[in-house]
Write a structure and sequence with these properties.
By secondary structure, the chain is of the alpha/beta class. It is built from 6 helices and 5 strands; from the N terminus they run E-H-E-H-H-E-H-E-H-H-E. It is globular.
Amino acid sequence: MASVLVVANRTAESPELLDALRARAVQGPCEYTLLVPSTPHGIAWAADMHAGGDEAEQHRKAFVEELREEGLNVKEAKVGDPDPLAAICDECNFHSYDELIVSTLPLKLSKWLHVDLPRKAGAATGLPVTHVIGSES
């Protein structure tokens, strides 16, 4: 069974990400670990990098409920470091994954795309990366 790390924050409950996870499940047996970096947005981004924890926890809870209601195999769901690349690397250093799915906002809105997170995550982990552009939940 493939182990898939899914990384999302503001797009966690987006229909686009849900569709991508359903499509992945059809390809073969897999289990998902959900990682929600506690990345703040808005003015909090500049003021306090640790201001996103509560919002990330809300996304984590809602996201895991949604996926389990869909019948998707969710092994674990957790909140990670505010720096999404650090959160991904931390998770991959302690657990083994076969692939990575990164969900971002569209380019105009996404801080993660401005720092090229999907490519950097693939380079840092050596995992194949699927990038999903989602709408804000």
